[in-house]
Specification:
Order of helices and strands: EHEEHEHEHEEHEEEHEEEHEHHEH
Radius of gyration: 19 Å
CATH superfamily of one domain: NAD(P)-binding Rossmann-like Domain
CATH topology of one domain: Rossmann fold
């Protein structure tokens, strides 16, 4: 199986390439710039429709795993960035979907809990259609979803939340750095969800593309729904750091640090039962994922 993976300089794309290699599949990375990665890759600006069609037609992948995205949530709110946000998350996704259709490739689109409004306490189900993004990033990812589902039949749309991986910035790395400088760290306790470790997600994505069980899925690590404060406490525990987490509400945190440019959802709970219903192995518990991530960071 030949798989074209976009965004391989990011957390998830990098791990998908490693998982493909483990299983003996041919992975070809695609990024907008040259990379020093050892795996095979092509330079590809996904916003260039003609170039996308040319590259995909030449590579002729069996699957496209689309991990590339504009993910700077606050930066997306800047009117000066709106055109490029949509060019990457919407137009780029459409370009890849059209190319996938041309070569009859399966397609994996990585989306987010931000396509919902983050209200209430009920977990969002994969096939819920009551979309109401509360920020520009969420709207752009939703529009990307709609491009995929409108163009293709052989697609997996996989929504994730609270992502962390080895190859990039994330909450764990930030908390450890902050904890080195401060004995007490204020962390919000009223935004609820579950983390997603990219190593574990990559395994699931490759499991998926080995099947034809297409559709919408939610995929985060198991272990229950938690707050960012819970997450921080586990990070310091696993890292062996004597740091006290002071739990605050979002409103209290914003009084101290100022409001974030983009609104954040309070309810990022994702219902993952569809994975088991379709025979996929769920991701391990998030506590285990944190332990493995920190251990790998020390090596």
């Amino acid at each position: 199986m030949k798989v074209l993976v976009t965004g391989t300089s990011g957390q998830l794309g990098f791990d998908v390439m490693e998982e493909l290699a483990k299983r003996g599949y041919e992975g070809i990375g695609a990024d907008r710039a040259e990379t020093e990665a050892e795996f095979e890759h092509v330079v590809l600006d996904i916003t260039d429709a003609d170039k996308v069609m040319k590259v995909v037609s030449e590579v002729r992948p069996d699957v496209i795993v689309h991990c590339a995205a504009w993910t700077n949530v606050d930066g997306a709110e800047d009117p000066a960035n709106l055109a490029v946000v949509r060019a990457v998350n919407v137009d780029g996704t459409r370009n890849l979907a059209l190319a996938a259709k041309e070569v009859d490739a399966k397609f994996v689109y990585i989306s987010t809990d931000y396509v919902f409004d983050g209200a209430g306490t009920e977990p969002w189900k994969p096939d819920d259609k009551n979309y109401a993004p509360i920020n520009v990033y969420g709207q752009s990812k939703l529009d990307g979803e709609l491009e995929v589902s409108g163009i293709l039949e052989k697609y997996f749309i996989v929504r994730i939340a609270w992502v962390f991986g080895r190859n990039g910035k994330n909450f764990i790395k930030t908390m450890i750095e902050v904890g080195k400088k401060h004995p007490v760290v204020k962390v919000v306790d009223d935004q609820i969800g579950t983390p997603t470790y990219t190593v574990d997600l990559a395994r699931l994505l490759v499991d998926m593309i080995e099947t034809d069980k297409y559709g919408y899925y939610h995929a985060t690590n198991e272990g229950g729904y938690i707050s960012w404060a819970d997450f921080a406490e586990e990070i310091y525990k696993q890292a062996g750091m004597e740091v006290k987490v002071e739990r605050v509400t979002t409103a209290q945190y914003e009084e101290i640090a100022g409001k974030t440019v983009a609104k954040r959802p309070f309810n990022s709970r994702l219902d993952k039962s569809k994975l088991v219903e379709n025979g996929f192995e769920p991701l391990p518990e998030w506590q285990d994922a944190v332990e493995r991530f920190i251990a790998s960071s020390r090596n």
